[in-house]
Automatic annotation (TrEMBL):
<comment type="similarity">
    <text>Belongs to the complex I 51 kDa subunit family.</text>
</comment>
<dbReference type="InterPro" id="IPR001949">
    <property type="entry name" value="NADH-UbQ_OxRdtase_51kDa_CS"/>
</dbReference>
<protein>
    <recommendedName>
        <fullName>NADH-quinone oxidoreductase subunit F</fullName>
        <ecNumber>7.1.1.-</ecNumber>
    </recommendedName>
</protein>
<keyword id="KW-0411">Iron-sulfur</keyword>
<dbReference type="GO" id="GO:0050136">
    <property type="term" value="F:NADH dehydrogenase (quinone) (non-electrogenic) activity"/>
</dbReference>
<dbReference type="InterPro" id="IPR019575">
    <property type="entry name" value="Nuop51_4Fe4S-bd"/>
</dbReference>
<dbReference type="InterPro" id="IPR037207">
    <property type="entry name" value="Nuop51_4Fe4S-bd_sf"/>
</dbReference>
<dbReference type="InterPro" id="IPR037225">
    <property type="entry name" value="Nuo51_FMN-bd_sf"/>
</dbReference>
<keyword id="KW-0520">NAD</keyword>
<keyword id="KW-0004">4Fe-4S</keyword>
<feature type="domain" description="NADH-ubiquinone oxidoreductase 51kDa subunit iron-sulphur binding">
    <location>
        <begin position="346"/>
        <end position="391"/>
    </location>
</feature>
<keyword id="KW-0408">Iron</keyword>
<keyword id="KW-0479">Metal-binding</keyword>
<comment type="function">
    <text>NDH-1 shuttles electrons from NADH, via FMN and iron-sulfur (Fe-S) centers, to quinones in the respiratory chain.</text>
</comment>
<dbReference type="Pfam" id="PF10589">
    <property type="entry name" value="NADH_4Fe-4S"/>
</dbReference>
<keyword id="KW-0874">Quinone</keyword>
<keyword id="KW-0285">Flavoprotein</keyword>
Length: 449
């Protein structure tokens, strides 16, 4: 699949005023290097931030813009920045970019890193200035080989141009930036597991509090932001708060634009920069082109494998956190999956839960033991060897692994699609129960400790 941000023939042209993330993209998909990036107003926002704005003013502008994290959690970015300590004596601070994009069916950050690496470098430079961080790391999944090469070249180009290093643009601000490739673990998408991995430790999530803003990497104040989140910062600084807010559709509580996409057996799979508040129907039909000939939409996920399934009638929902929340799940990463009518939901969920079980760090019992248990039951149902009570056990596991009952959000995200699939397609799971009478399996305990 080609990574693209180009929409349908009748879509509006991509301009700096409407597409702050993607207007610089080349038609041929080649990376935009420093000379071309600067010719397209690249680093103008960084120059403004470093020479005209105080760090606190940048934080306030990002807070006023309503920018929220684009990695899936949606926490307000300016609020997160404001948690960093005010004590000027704490001069060692870190900015980490979470580029460990391992959510199945999500590739939006890859588009930015491969084709617009300088946008991320500029976003991190401005953000580091706001946070008074002297060093930054891009924590990148090891499988993104092209992204790693392009980011490293962009960093070197920025260093040679005096845009990284000592006394940047004569501002007196110093900032070093490094690209760090991980060994490939989904759990590293959790910010404290990422920090542990960067330190050379096992990628287990940490207990919070203390939060990274107080005690982060190597015990120092640290802020962790997603790739797409950081790439929004130059546009906000350059265009202002009012302009940024105006990009979203009426009714959306989220501001700005978002990289959204559709994959599966659609006619035009891809990723596009679109305003928050666009309906899923528009995304599915106008951009993804609807289902391929001979296939019918059975259900869809709005934002990665860790979000719940929705039915075709839910396509009327607006694509923002609250809009998707109204129909029963989360927006997540905004990269949707179309499931066609040839797919058996038991097999699909068995595949998903195998991934989540394998990627569990094993730190807490519900996740470590509960996810493999769900896989075992789903394998039996897929083979038609399930027993009476298996669906009840699966639903109990969905409950026991839900939000607030595990050490981090890995398990709740893993079981959300399972619960929704049983809700909407229970008959497919029941079809896997063996018809001949047999001794029922023990069910999960009804007591949560």
């Amino acid at each position: 699949m080609r990574l693209t941000s180009f929409g349908p023939a009748n879509s509006i042209a991509r301009t700096p005023e409407t597409h702050p993330l993607t207007w610089r993209l080349r038609e041929d998909g080649a990376p935009v290097w420093l000379e071309e990036y600067q010719a397209k107003d690249g680093y103008a926002a960084a120059r403004k931030a470093l020479t005209e704005l105080a760090p606190d003013a940048i934080v306030q502008e990002v807070k006023d813009s309503g920018l929220k994290g684009r990695g899936g959690a949606g926490f307000p970015t300016g609020v997160k920045w404001g948690l960093m300590p005010k004590d000027e004596s704490l001069d060692i601070r870190y900015l980490l970019c979470n580029a460990d994009e391992m959510e199945p069916n999500t590739w939006k950050d890859r588009l930015l890193m491969e084709q617009l690496p300088h946008l991320l470098v500029e976003g991190m430079l401005i953000s580091a200035r706001a946070l008074k961080a002297y060093r930054g790391y891009i924590f990148l999944r090891g499988e993104y080989v092209d992204a790693a090469a392009n980011l490293r070249r962009a960093v070197e180009e920025a260093k040679a141009a005096g845009l990284l290093g000592k006394n940047i643009l004569g501002s007196g601000f110093d900032f070093e930036l490094f690209v760090h490739t991980g060994a490939g673990r989904y759990i590293c998408g959790e910010e404290t597991a990422l920090i542990n991995s960067l330190e050379g430790r096992r990628a287990n999530p940490r207990s919070k509090p203390p939060f990274p803003a107080a005690v982060g990497v190597w015990g120092k104040p640290t802020c962790v932001n997603n790739v797409e989140t950081l790439c929004n910062v130059p546009g906000i600084v350059a265009g202002g708060v009012d302009w940024y807010k105006s990009l979203a559709r009426e009714g959306s509580e989220d501001m700005g634009t978002k990289l959204m996409g559709f994959s599966g057996k659609v006619k035009n799979p891809g990723v596009w920069e679109l305003p928050f508040g666009i309906t899923a129907q528009e995304l599915f039909e106008d951009y993804a082109g609807g289902m391929r000939d001979g296939f019918k939409l059975k259900c869809w996920q709005p934002g990665g494998a860790g979000t719940g399934f929705l039915l075709p009638e839910h396509l009327s929902a607006q694509m923002y956190a609250g809009g998707i929340g109204k129909v029963g799940t989360r927006m997540g990463t905004g990269l949707a999956l179309a499931v066609d009518d040839s797919v058996n939901m038991v097999s699909l969920l068995r595949n998903m839960e195998e991934f989540f079980a394998r990627e569990s760090c094993g730190w807490c019992t519900p996740c470590r033991d509960g996810l493999p248990w769900s896989v075992k039951l789903l394998r039996s149902l897929e083979k038609g060897e399930g027993q009476q009570g298996d669906l009840d056990t699966l639903l109990q596991l969905v409950n026991f692994l839900g939000p607030g009952k595990t050490f981090c959000a890995h398990a709740p995200g893993a079981v959300e699609p399972l619960g929704s699939a049983i809700k909407y397609f229970r008959e497919e799971f029941e079809a896997g129960v063996r018809k001949a009478p047999s001794e029922p399996r023990p069910t999960a305990s009804a007591t949560v400790i």
